Amino acid sequence: MLEKKFFGLDRSHYSHDTIYIAGIKINILKSSIKKNAELYNTYQNAEDIPKATGLLRDVQLGNLTLLKLFDEFCNENDLQYWIDFGTLLGAVRHKGFIPWDDDIDIGMLRDDYEKLIQLLSECNHPYLNLDLARNKPYQCFIKIRYKGLRKLFIDIFPYDLYISRTNSQEKITLHNKITKIIKKLKFTSKFIKDKNKLREKFSRITKHEITQDMPCRKENKPSLFWGIDFPHGRWKNRVYDWENIFPLKKIMFENVEVSCPNDPDFVLKNVYGSYMQIPKRIYPGHVNISNLSEEDLKIIRDFIKETNA
After folding, report:
1. Which backbone phi and psi does 288 adopt, to 5 degrees?
2. Under a CB-based contact definition with an 8 Å cutoff, are residues 277 and 132 in contact?
3. How many CB atoms lie within 10 A of CB 190?
4. Which DSSP category does 108 fall into?
5. CB contact at 8 A, 213 and 190
6. Nearest 5°: CA angle at 16, between 15 and 22?
7. Residue 19 pairs with which residues in a beta bridge?
8. How many whole angstroms separate alpha carbon 65 and alpha carbon 59?
9. What is the overall mean pLDDT for the chain?
10. Is residue 26 domain-shared with residue 72, that is, in the same domain?
11. Strands, DSSP E only, in the chain?
12. Global confidence as pTM
């Protein structure tokens, strides 16, 4: 395994082959994926691209069913959430899933995020399973998975409150401070094997180094920032004004009305820039569609039928 990381060829990923040369990783899209990307790029407007079909659509509808159940659970337990990242982009640009996307992204304030963890840990929900995911050594956030099939899941991203509102320069300063903290975490977190201890470390750093042990209250409508649990490092602004997110609004996603940020346009521009343009990266990034078995498909289809009956 170590040798492959320095020299070799890995064909195991369904969307691309990976070549390792002296520790440098080069991803090359497989021909079938490249063909789909070329087809999508024949459209002038991204919103005109038709919905996914086949196996990918089955996965999307399975995750949509999971989203409905998650929405019901949040409503029953007075938890606020909003669709975020690719799911928000899909709702605005495609009125549902991005045709090549395959998962659900959700944002929550830290208090609701922690309450969600507690509630799902204590109850035996028939469908929703709590998973503390660690995709990389320096990140650890929760996924809500379908109990019947781990390949169906929702990513939940926590947002933390800051001590006050921030002006433009203060946002830059705060963003840079968080970026430096995350760079350190990339080296120090890999030695922490226990996920709960890693979460405790994130909490201590946020409290002592970012908010400086000062009270952060919703009633003050302060700024908020992406939790260091998910260090999305390629974006320039980790900090939002309260009014960018709240009060939450409703938006249609496929055939479901869900919560979204108060200013979706601002949020999407902050994350994606010119988000109505067709991107270069056009393929599912989370579920290996080609590895779905007939049994997997039956489980997905039965799940959809059972919960929508």
Report:
1. -80, 95
2. no
3. 12
4. E
5. no
6. 155
7. 9, 26
8. 10
9. 89
10. no
11. 7-10, 16-21, 24-29, 82-83, 104-109, 128-133, 141-146, 149-161, 224-226, 239-240, 249-253, 256-260
12. 0.89
